[in-house]
Amino acid sequence: MEVSRRLKVAPDTVRTWRRRFLDRGLDGLSDEPRPGVPRQITDADVERVIVKTLEEKPANATHWSTRSMAAATGMSQSAISRIWRAFALAPHRCETFKLSTDPLFIDKVRDVVGLYLDPPEKALVLCVDEKSQIQALDRSQPVLPMMPGVPERRSHDYVRAGTTTLFAALEVASGKVIGSLHRRHRAAEFKKFLAKLDKEVPGDLDVHLILDNYATHKTPAIKKWLLAHPRFHLHFTPTGSSWLNLVERWFGELTSKRLRRGVHRSVQALERDIRTWLADWNAHPRPFIWTKTADEILDKVAAYCQRISDSRH
């Protein structure tokens, strides 16, 4: 009973293992043969499938399928599928990535992530970007609504009715968004948006803007405006690193929930829809919480670089 209590196991379990040890010594502590059909796939078979999946490609395709791997190894498709699932291998999937070539990549990552994780006092941190060329699209035929057993259906072709650009500033702390719609996408429109931010953000707060390296953000007119408004501080993300700007996550929400399946016969209708969605969002804003430290990001990038380097040999 004392052993059972210390190990937090049932007394019958203790008695069973004591009896096996007394009968057969250390051999009695080994697992006994399990019931059922003997295992047919050996460790060597599993290793062969894994190595082939990771290091080889089929002669007539860009990636393995369960059928082609089964034919190449003499195993069943179900066995290949079980091995791939066990080791989280998915040859049919492919994701994209891009490593920034910005010479100041490390400094910019630390700067931006520092604003997310440790924002300055008496300041507002805003993620700013423009979603340009938002198209007002009208389907060539009426959309057929969803019915039981039948999804919503729409024609594959559409009629273009014009475009608009949404300038947006996502408040990191609260998730609220300041937005402005313009028909053009120039430094002049960006300057008007800065003036809107200056008007709406309380005057006793500094304003830190996280934005990309688009040319309109760095024109002489913008630099002159910033000199006249010293409470504004610009923090640029590294080139090719839009994922570092949280407003891109908000643009994704807008696209998936309002724009992708929207039907708009005019730019005015599109802009009304966007303004309505923006107002609804700000009525119940949800901040996007950044969790990765700069060191974690840089370590992951270094690991990618190492893998790319290794794959060339």
CATH superfamily of the largest domain: Ribonuclease H-like superfamily/Ribonuclease H
**What structural class do the secondary elements suggest?**
alpha/beta
Number of helices in the DSSP assignment? 11
Mean of pLDDT: 90
Shape: extended
User: Helical residue percent?
Assistant: 40-55%
Beta-strand proportion: 15-25%
Element-level helix/strand string: HHHHHHEEEHEHEHHH
Count of distinct structural domains: 2
CATH fold naming of the largest domain: Nucleotidyltransferase, domain 5
- In the predicted model, the low-confidence regions spanning at least 5 consecutive residues are none
The side-by-side strand order for the widest beta sheet comes to 3-2-1-4-5
Quick one: biggest sheet? 5 strands, mixed
* Number of strand elements: 5
User: Roughly how many Å is the radius of gyration?
Assistant: 30 Å
End-to-end separation in angstroms reads: 61 Å
CATH architecture of the largest domain: 2-Layer Sandwich
Task: Please report the first level of CATH classification, the CATH class of the largest domain.
Answer: Alpha Beta
Give keywords.
313 residues; alpha/beta; Nucleotidyltransferase, domain 5; 2 domains; five-stranded mixed β-sheet; 11 helices
Structure description:
With 313 residues, the protein is of the alpha/beta class. It has 2 domains: 2-86, no CATH class; 105-295, 2-Layer Sandwich (Nucleotidyltransferase, domain 5), CATH 3.30.420.10. Helices cover 43% and strands 15% of the residues. It is built from 11 helices and 5 strands. The protein has helices at 2-7, 11-24, 43-55, 66-73, 77-86, 105-117, 187-200, 220-228, 247-259, 267-283, 294-311, and strands at residues 123-139, 158-171, 177-182, 206-211, 232-236. It has a 5-stranded mixed β-sheet. Strand 2 (158-171) and strand 3 form a beta hairpin. The longest helix is centred in the C-terminal third of the chain and has 18 residues, at 294-311. It is extended and about 90 Å long. The relative contact order is 0.11.
